[in-house]
Amino acid sequence: xxxxxxxxxxxxxxxxxxxxxxxxxxxxxxxxxxxxxxxxxxxxxxxxxxxxxxxxxxxxxxxxxxxxxxxxxxxxxxxxxxxxxxxxxxxxxxxxxxxxxxxxxxxxxxxxxxxxxxxxxxxxxxxxxxxxxxxxxxxxxxxxxxxxxxxxxxxxxxxxxxxxxxxxxxxxxxxxxxxxxxxxxxxxxxxxxxxxxxxxxxxxxxxxxxxxxxxxxxxxxxxxxxxxxxxxxxxxxxxxxxxxxxxxxxxxxxxxxxxxxxxxxxxxxxxxxxxxxxxxxxxxxxxxxxxxxxxxxxxxxxxxxxxxxxxxxxxxxxxxxx
Length: 322
Ligand SMILES: Nc1ncnc2c1ncn2[C@@H]1O[C@H](COP(=O)(O)OP(=O)(O)O)[C@@H](O)[C@H]1O
Ligand SMILES: [Mg+2]
Fold this sequence. Notes:
Elements: H1 2-13, H2 26-33, E1 73-84, E2 90-100, E3 104-109, H3 115-123, E4 128-137, E5 140-141, H4 147-152, E6 155-158, H5 170-184, H6 192-205, H7 223-237, E7 241-245, H8 253-266, E8 272-276, H9 280-285, E9 290-295, E10 298-303, H10 305-321
Parallel strand pairs: 3-8, 3-9, 6-7, 7-8
Antiparallel strand pairs: 1-2, 1-4, 4-5, 9-10
Bound molecules: adenosine-5'-diphosphate and magnesium ion.
């Protein structure tokens, strides 16, 4: 959520910069239902990429799903190239990745390899422009959707560093986000009491006490509480694909176990998780279908969890050399 809010906060000191929030953020959902136009990468001024799949270099390595043909692809990323909007520096240099329904994928890689950029590009963060390639989500062209449409289509992202929203109560925030989604789906909104009944059992899932709901969003939360709160948002809003960027960072083993347990409980044969992590430790708690190693804006290697073991034992250089 941090990345969602920082552009919003910084815009107050720089009025020329449009307010913008990426898709997955609950706040984005709330604000978008108030019909505020917050995003600066609207379809009109975004470089439009309409590569046909057949036009994509078939020699590019494709980090496929599990290879099980009976599984339906949920996310298909082909030759995705993206630059930083402001400087035009290329960060993603041809990412290929297929995540099928019910799969858990892990992306590992050194700092600066482009993992967070990939996740932010997928949710439509305005800091980046897609310059080549395609992304199909549930059979639809994801790149053609506004960030809030991506969220409504079932994409959720937990950012690396969730930030505080001073003065906004956690339960009100979640209630508004949830109602915004229900409204857009044509379902009746839940009042405070009904929402309380809906959310209370979900607190157990992330092992949080009820008073957690009455505190301001992330204000004074420990690192672990912030991560739990992200998973609570996921549990409340639901998602077909949850992208979890370093959900394990700053967590002690108990908090990690709780967060992993909550993520595992949300997994169904239909929905999928794309988790980004530095540490194999997380993969002991959330078992990945496939592990991808990212390097310099590309997925260089894909394998099963033994790839993460090899990485831990031998380091990135050895993996790249194989
Ligand atoms: N908005 C941005 N402005 C400037 N540089 C950026 C921006 N986003 C990413 N980068 C740069 O792109 C590279 C990849 O960053 P990132 O995707 O955060 O890597 P990772 O998550 O793998 O550590 C880094 O060198 C980072 O400094
Ligand atoms: Mg990162």
